[in-house]
């Protein structure tokens, strides 16, 4: 009998090493290598036992295409992120910080499906059945016919599901707590997570049930475990939000049956998560009076236009190296915008601290926010209040040119719906998509924005001198 070979697997990235070492060579994480047997897990066993392959039928690219049947939960924001509801036989991976509301959202979705007559199974590996019942009573959904279980063995879970007809939805909370006998390692390790996820995904594909896996996140905000799990599932959703903020954002970063980068906005209340059908009014509803350093950005999240306030504060720095603090945007992107303003427009920030914040807890990823960020920073530096009914969007290049962005018409339509009558946008987009909007000003270079704010600052300085 061959002796099991020992390898060391990184619990952060899944890299395999023949010997233990303090730092993983692949991801750079310290103290993440764990000893595991090579024969354990999926793919283990003698190679001689592999069966001979059989040929499969090849088909042409052209053919009849049918839309995937979907199961709507009735929670509009959740269905929007998933692309219209759950797809039969699909597997979803939902990640987020501890206490952000992952279990609450899935329990509400499970209860909504169960009340609609669907069969739903909720299996928790972290909480007892009594704890789930207490949460259901607090949410007011204790009467929903959701079947509960507290189990961590994959074999026992599959055996339980095989006793009855396949349910419409199976929720596993969480995949890091599961263990399977075919993997010779502790629960939560890379081998166990990969083997458990593969077994549950195979069950979903064979029976047509939708499986939702809850995943923990690392300190970097990524779903813990091997990245291969994210490639195995059909969709990956991230639940975002700050601990002191009552708003939560569900973002799709992968979806084989719908658009990616779609978001759903929820508000955490005493009765659970309530969906916010109009996020623009939410993010702008708490906007204070007119003040320097505030600009409204007309952005896009997936297919949804979204208006959000960008706040900037520029103050003299007592330090040799000024601070650059950014919340909700990329710090490297802010550094690039500041460098362009200094090199192309002569605006100096070398002796100033700069703080940038995206109001409402939203995180912006698109470069179209460059122009709004530049306007907010220049407004704070000069003390000029930007027009309250104006929105900004456009990408700034390293040469200082303002480049056009996608879906200009949708951004302007959302701005007009919320009462904004002016817009500063790339000049190339004005002639094509902003002809009918009153107050649409196109600029081809960021120097034009600097000139406009400087011109508005001179009358204020003259009135202050009088």
Structure, described:
The chain has 466 residues and is an alpha/beta fold. It folds into three domains: 1-39; 71-277, P-loop containing nucleotide triphosphate hydrolases (Rossmann fold), CATH 3.40.50; 286-465, Ribosomal Protein S5, domain 2. The protein is built from twelve helices and 23 strands. It has helices at residues 76-82, 102-115, 129-139, 154-162, 190-207, 228-232, 279-285, 331-345, 370-382, 408-417, 427-433, 446-465, and strands at 6-10, 16-17, 33-37, 70-71, 86-87, 91-96, 120-124, 147-150, 169-173, 210-215, 235-240, 247-255, 263-269, 272-275, 294-301, 304-316, 324-327, 352-358, 390-392, 395-396, 402-403, 422-426, 440-443. The strands form five sheets. Strands 8-7-9-10-6-11-12-13-14 form a nine-stranded mixed sheet. α9 runs parallel beside α12 (446-465). The radius of gyration is 26 Å and the shape is globular. Mean pLDDT is 86; it is low at 40-49 and 461-466.
